[in-house]
User: Fold Protoporphyrinogen oxidase from Salibaculum griseiflavum.
Amino acid sequence: MKLLIGYASTEGQSRKIARHIADKLMDQGHGIELLSLEDAEGLEPDRFDRAVLVASVHAGQYRKELSGFASDHRSWLDRHPVLFLSVSLAAAGHEAEDWRGLERIIDDFAEVTGWTPDRIEQVAGAYRPSRYDMFTRFIMRRIIASKDPGADLESDKEYTDWAALDRLIDDWMGG
Ligand SMILES: Cc1cc2nc3c(=O)[nH]c(=O)nc-3n(C[C@H](O)[C@H](O)[C@H](O)COP(=O)(O)O)c2cc1C
Assistant:
């Protein structure tokens, strides 16, 4: 099968997740294109049978290249199996209000682009102080200190559950 694995990432965790999926599916013999959605101009999606899109949430929204891609290729996306992975820190926790917020972000995205992904999964991302500017580090430290009191605020920390991600991909490919 030929798959497009597209990502929209700011600090690199969605890219890492996309690459992990690409490596896994390549090992299974599938044809893969791993693409930053920033570089999607001129892409001809008809070459692909399926797609995985991976995008992170920053301040309640996805990067604009994801919305641009979804709007540009809406008709292809509607006609093919697409797995949309929404990467966030809210998905690392169990707070009902945070999860409702994630649903609202998807609803807003669907309204703006006119495309509702047929399968959406929430994936826990990462805390990466090594990649934040001073202001972002200040904000993120406060968020992590309240959400994960045991975390070392000076060190990067991945919340992504790689084994669960592998199971999800196996399930989606089998379905
Ligand atoms: C400036 C900033 C804003 C963020 N806003 C949110 C948010 O609104 N909701 C959320 O759940 N996570 C938020 N996060 C956490 C990111 O979604 C998380 O760190 C993710 O792993 C980033 O993925 P990326 O490295 O692919 O960009 C934010 C992170 C940063 C640095």
Q: What stands out?
A: The chain has two domains: 2-125+160-174, 128-158. Residues 9-14, 56-60, 87-90, 125-126, 132, 136, 140 surround flavin mononucleotide (CB under 6 Å). The chain has a mean pLDDT of 97.
